[in-house]
């Protein structure tokens, strides 16, 4: 069998300190996983289970200068700890969930907030608000063998030198093992899956020309600048 045109390259992320790359299969994101962020978005932190949504695998980008996205006047930043899955499992117990983790990275869940607001009002999906081109800038992955499993540490984001988001990993409503275990009840997790674990409070607008710097203790530093689209 021949493809009718050459298939697109597999999206991948470098593994820190090696010449290897992590091939991305799927991107799952957890919504409203910090209490203060949940409240700033008008929600109740006392949800029974995590809220999941997806981005396409090719939303990941290693580019550090990005064009301003199409069809938005209200682009928002959301800095997140990302979990890179290296194992396979379904109905994974929380006590075994970390066995599936290959490593961790720092990522941005960029959001066209105006499109999301319209979708929410109409009861429509968030796909175009969350899954657009280059909507997931990310750092190289730090393997578990190098850094272990982060359970605490500062996660922050500044825009043009001003701190906007400043949170703590230990403040996740659903810790990483619970996120993995819950998601594995809905889909079979496989190597190459990425899970973005949620963003702290302080999300806000990004304009063309802005420079974003995200940091997460022990995981990495992410710098992104937005250029004006030609």
Report on this model:
By secondary structure, the chain is of the alpha+beta class. The chain has one domain: Fumarylacetoacetase-like, C-terminal domain (Fumarylacetoacetate hydrolase, domain 2, Alpha-Beta Complex). 14% of the residues lie in helices and 35% in strands. The strands form five sheets. It has a six-stranded mixed beta sheet with strand order 4-3-15-8-9-12. A hairpin with a 3-residue loop joins strand 17 and strand 18. The longest helix has 10 residues. The model has no long low-confidence stretch (mean pLDDT 94).
Rg over CA atoms = 17 Å
- Contiguous low-pLDDT stretches (5 residues minimum) are none
Distance between the termini: 40 Å
The fold-level CATH name is Fumarylacetoacetate hydrolase, domain 2
With strands numbered from the N-terminus, the spatial order across the biggest sheet is 4-3-15-8-9-12
**Class inferred from helices and paired strands:** alpha+beta
Q: Could you say which overall geometry the principal axes of the C-alpha atoms support?
A: globular
Helices and strands, in N-to-C order? EEEHEEEEEEEHHEEHEEHEEEE
The fourth-level CATH homologous superfamily is: Fumarylacetoacetase-like, C-terminal domain
Helix content: 10-25%
Give the count of structural domains. 1
What CATH architecture do you see? Alpha-Beta Complex
Whole-number mean pLDDT: 94
The main pleated sheet reads as: 6 strands, mixed
Strand content: 25-35%
Query: How many individual helices?
Result: 5
How many E-type strands? Answer: 18
């Amino acid at each position: 069998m021949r493809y009718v045109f050459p298939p697109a390259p597999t999206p991948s992320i470098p593994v820190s300190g090696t010449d290897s790359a992590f091939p991305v299969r799927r991107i799952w994101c957890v919504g409203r996983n910090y209490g203060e962020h949940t409240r700033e978005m008008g929600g109740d932190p006392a949800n029974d289970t995590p809220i999941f949504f997806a981005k396409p695998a090719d939303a990941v980008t290693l580019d550090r200068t990005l064009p301003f996205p199409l069809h938005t006047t209200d682009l928002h930043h959301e800095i997140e700890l990302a979990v890179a899955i290296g194992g396979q499992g379904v109905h994974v117990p929380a006590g075994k969930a970390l066995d599936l983790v290959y490593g961790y990275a720092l990522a941005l869940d960029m959001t066209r907030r105006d499109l999301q607001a319209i979708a929410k009002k109409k009861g429509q999906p968030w796909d175009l608000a969350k899954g657009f081109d280059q909507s997931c800038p990310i750092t190289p992955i730090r393997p578990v063998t190098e850094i272990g499993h982060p359970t605490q540490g500062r996660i922050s984001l500044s825009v043009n030198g001003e701190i906007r988001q400043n949170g703590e990993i230990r403040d996740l409503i659903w810790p990483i093992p619970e996120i993995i275990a819950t998601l594995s009840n809905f889909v079979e997790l496989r190597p190459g899956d990425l899970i973005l674990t949620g963003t702290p409070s302080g999300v806000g607008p990004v304009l063309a020309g802005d420079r974003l710097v995200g940091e997460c203790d022990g995981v990495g530093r992410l710098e992104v600048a937005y250029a004006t689209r030609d």
